[in-house]
């Protein structure tokens, strides 16, 4: 018997495959620890439910006696596997006795299951895949329906959905979040369909500008889906005849009307970094080059939204930590990388 058995997943939403892994964890250990990924993110068609909502789905699907043996740990996507794995280790250690005997429960379904190898020292309990279902077709059926057609849309998948999850999905379809997520879902499907005939999936290149001045950071509100209404760094796709730097300057001017000349921005350039995690964008494979420009104590340049930006604003840096769930894609983590918004996990 293990002290704890760990299950890592996004559970967007909880289905019978997840539940089978959870029952195995509870059968093999005193406690089951479910690490809920993609916590603290904005709602998107891929991550439509908050970690608190998913935790409730889990508890609703378990008998009362087993709920007391369940620990739910929210975990953000760091887009950095070593950092993410160490953060999980620290969180589990804080919820288990010293020298605890720990197991990791999971199954290798595809390339996204490689994280199961990131925890040497934990026994791996391999489970066979529970049927051919995963959460993606459930979300597609869900967002392709309406509140009145939901039962019919989910009927072919009913065997894969715990009763508590199905009830929860029906209730959520009557909230304001549902139509907003449907709009995002449709835009992303159309976006992917536009290049579906390409011989290979395309790789997109973008740029982002992180401007800081007087302790404030320049942000935009996105005007269109995907990410409509969310905060983001000024940026966009690289034009065919532009260098990365030229594209950065162009996007900055178009989206914020920042009046500073190129020479001043180049003199204030303090760093640049490529962000290329395969899952950083729902649009597909998007690699971005981010530029950190620190204007120090210069006069705060006037800005206003333009082009794809509904709004542009200087936001105090000390507010950013509490805004994590309001950002598009991984832009909050880009800010964290340059500005150190989060304390780093302790080394193993």
From TrEMBL:
<dbReference type="InterPro" id="IPR014729">
    <property type="entry name" value="Rossmann-like_a/b/a_fold"/>
</dbReference>
<protein>
    <submittedName>
        <fullName>Bifunctional nicotinamide-nucleotide adenylyltransferase/Nudix hydroxylase</fullName>
    </submittedName>
</protein>
<feature type="domain" description="Nudix hydrolase">
    <location>
        <begin position="202"/>
        <end position="340"/>
    </location>
</feature>
<dbReference type="InterPro" id="IPR004821">
    <property type="entry name" value="Cyt_trans-like"/>
</dbReference>
<dbReference type="Pfam" id="PF00293">
    <property type="entry name" value="NUDIX"/>
</dbReference>
<keyword id="KW-0808">Transferase</keyword>
<dbReference type="InterPro" id="IPR000086">
    <property type="entry name" value="NUDIX_hydrolase_dom"/>
</dbReference>
<dbReference type="Pfam" id="PF01467">
    <property type="entry name" value="CTP_transf_like"/>
</dbReference>
<dbReference type="GO" id="GO:0016779">
    <property type="term" value="F:nucleotidyltransferase activity"/>
</dbReference>
<keyword id="KW-0548">Nucleotidyltransferase</keyword>
<dbReference type="InterPro" id="IPR015797">
    <property type="entry name" value="NUDIX_hydrolase-like_dom_sf"/>
</dbReference>
